[in-house]
Design a protein that fits this description.
Blueprint lengths: L1 E4 L3 E4 L5 H96 L1
Antiparallel strand pairs: 1-2
């Protein structure tokens, strides 16, 4: 195995002194640590972005629940109005039926009294 040392010289690991090998190991560890730190920082950024997205989703969910509640209230109001109209139409029909019945009775009594 060879390594690039001293700004470009390629040497075999076997040619290195124990001290140089230790330096190479330390250098590799430092680069690994820096890479690991970059990865950890990227993970932290992603977690932060995910949290922000989750907060937005929660806000949208809350808005939708409010909108659905408002629509449900309007539907309930319309249903109550329709019930009122049904009762009103029903009452009008009953009054109409009573008037027709009263006129019928009046005509029958009028005919019978003649």
């Amino acid at each position: 195995m060879t390594i690039n040392a001293n700004g470009g010289d390629v040497v075999s690991i076997e040619e290195l002194t124990p001290e140089q090998k230790l330096q190479v190991i330390k250098m590799i560890e430092e680069k690994t640590d820096r890479s690991e730190n970059r990865v950890l920082a990227a993970i932290a950024d992603l977690k932060s972005e995910i949290s922000a997205v989750n907060r937005k989703i929660d806000g949208i969910r809350s808005e939708l629940k409010s909108e659905i509640s408002a629509v449900n209230r309007k539907v309930d109001g319309l249903a109550a109005g329709i019930t009122d109209v049904d009762v009103s139409v029903s009452n009008r029909m009953n009054v109409h039926t009573l008037i027709v019945a009263a006129l019928t009775v009046a005509v029958v009594f009028s005919v019978l009294s003649q």
